[in-house]
What does this fold into?
Amino acid sequence: DTEVTQTPKHLVMGMTNKKSLKCEQHMGHRAMYWYKQKAKKPPELMFVYSYEKLSINESVPSRFSPECPNSSLLNLHLHALQPEDSALYLCASSQVDMGFSYNEQFFGPGTRLTVL
Amino acid sequence: KQEVTQIPAALSVPEGENLVLNCSFTDSAIYNLQWFRQDPGKGLTSLLLIQSSQREQTSGRLNASLDKSSGRSTLYIAASQPGDSATYLCAVRRSGTASKLTFGTGTRLQVTL
It folds into this structure.
């Protein structure tokens, strides 16, 4: 099973709302990622979790708050977003070898977020 | 800083043609390179992963080559089909311990009937 699942598929929220995006994988991968993708652009890395610990934060505004409750789940908590945060949010996962070597990344279908 | 460029940005070919997509990167010290396909509004599907020690990888009608010294990779698609229409992205990893991928700008492919 090489599937990464994401919920919800679509989300519309106001600037004062609090919402969460969810990502799940059952491939035993120990690295999980959040990306943001604007139209006609490549994905931009936001966060990386390795062994459930945050290893990379690409200077993402604090209105985005990631959480990794266990090795299979990754959440992205959203609060006080701006209209320019509207985008496709992608989750990915990959194996991590004992030598901390990262392997092929597998992506989920994404959540289409619209901020009004 | 690694920069990854894909040429052409868009390509339209008739069904049945063989085609080549190009990916160039400025820093040849890479660990591996991954090719993805993305349908409009969807996630990325991993097509092929080439390790820096490899010259090429094949999967079905797809063949990816890597020339690390010249900073280039190509994705060859044989006997193209309308279902191959999508955006194709290449991405490089700087080292084995680097979790970050640097993505190219993408090539939007349309295969016409």
In short: Chain B touches chain A through 22 residues (CB under 8 Å). Chain B has a mean pLDDT of 94. The longest strand of chain B covers residues 44-51. The radius of gyration of chain B is 13 Å.
